[in-house]
Amino acid sequence: MKWTSLGLLLCLSVTGWSPKAASAFVTKKHATHPQRSTISPTSIRSSGVVHRELFSSSNNNDMNDDEGGSYSSRRQVLRQATAVAGSTLASWWLWGSEPGTAAAAAADTTKKRICVTGCTSGIGLDAATRLAAQGHELLLAGRTTSKAQAAAARILETVPNANIGLAFECNLASLSSIQKFASQIQQLSSSSSSSSQPFAIDVLCLNAGLSRDAAAKDIVRTTDGFELTVGTNHLGHFYLNQLLLPMMNKNTGRIVVTASGVHDPESPGGNQGETATLGDLKGLEQRNFEMVDGGPFSADKAYKDSKLCNVLFTRELQRRLTASGSGITTSCFSPGLILESGFFRNQNPLFVKAFTVGVKVAEVGETSHWGGGALEYVATSPQVANQGGTYFLAPPGSSKYGDAAYGREFKVAQVSKEAQDDSKAKRLWELSETLVAGSTA
Question: Do the Cβ atoms of 269 and 30 come closer than 8 Å?
C-alpha cells in the first residue's frame, strides 16, 4: 500500500512544479508552533505567578507572521502541492528506516523545576502539559504575559494540580523583554530559596521559534535591529541562556534546544530550495545584518540558518560547560515534520490541504503530541543525562510508534558537516556575544 501511494505521488509530481514554490512550502515543514485559541485567566497576579482559580475563554493569535503570496488558480495550487508531495515526501519516505529495538528508558521520577519557552502552543504546550502531569514545576515563557497565562490555564484544565511557578512575557525578539523574564525568575529565586533548599532551574527548554513565509522579500527586524528569524530563534535564546545559566542546577542541570533537520543540506527538507550555510559568518560582524553569511536576504534560508545556529550553539555551549567543570549538559533535537503547525497558515488553503493529504498518505508526518513527548524525553529521560552536546532525530513517521519511539527510533544522530565545525561554533558564539552585549550595554 505504501509503495502504491508513493508511486501515485511521484506520478502526480510530473505535472510540473517550481523549485521556488517547493522551497517556499517545504521550509515550513519542521515548524512546531501552531496558532491556537487562548484562554485568559481572570485571577492571576501581575507578576505572572499562576494560581489555580477560575478562567474564562477568549480568542487570540499566538503569533502574527507576514502574509504569504497568493496563487493564480486552484489548478496551479493543486499542481504545485502534488509536485512538492511527489518530490519532498518521497525523499522523506525513502529516508526512513525500520523500527529499532532499544526500549525507551523509564521516566525519571525526581521532581524538577523546568523553564519552557514557546509553551503557548504546539510541542511546547504539549511538553509542558506532559511535564506538569509528572509533577514538575513549570516556569512558562510566552511572547506576552497574557499568552503565557493562557497556556497555564490550558495546562491546569488538563492537569488540575499542575505546579506552575511562573507564567510571564518573554518575547525573544526583544532583549529587554528577555531581561524582564529573567528578572522575574530572579525574584522568584529570592522568595523561594532557603538554606536547606536553594533555588535552581533543573531544565531549560529553549523551544520557541518562528518561520516567516519562505517567499517573503522584505526584511523584518527585532526591536534591537537584528534580522527577525535569526534574531529570535538564535540570538534571543542565546541571551536568555546567558541570563539564566547562573541560576541552573550546576550538578545535574540540562539545557534542551529545539532545532530541525533542515539545518542539514543533505537531509530531506534541508536539501529543498536554498540550503543552510553560515559561510564565514561575515554578516554577524554588523548589527544590521541581513543574513549570517553576509549574502542577500532569503526568508527560506534564514530559517534553515537559524536552525544551524541552534545546533552549533548547543555544541559550543557543551564544550564551554565541560571546560568549566560544570555538570550541566545540553542537547538539541528535531521534532520532525508536524502537520498541526501554525507555520502553514500563510499558505493557500488548497495548497496546504493537498500537501497534508500527501504527508498522511506517505506516512512521514508527526503529531504535536509526539513532538511534545520528544521534548519531554530529551529534557527528563535518564537515558539522555550523560549525552551532552548531542542531537536527537527520528526517521519520518516515527510518531506511529507512540512514546515507545523515544530512545529507539528517536535517538542520537549525526549533525550536518558544517555543524561539526568546532571553530565555526566558537566564532558564532563570540559574534553572538558581541551583538547581544552591544544591545544591552
Answer: yes
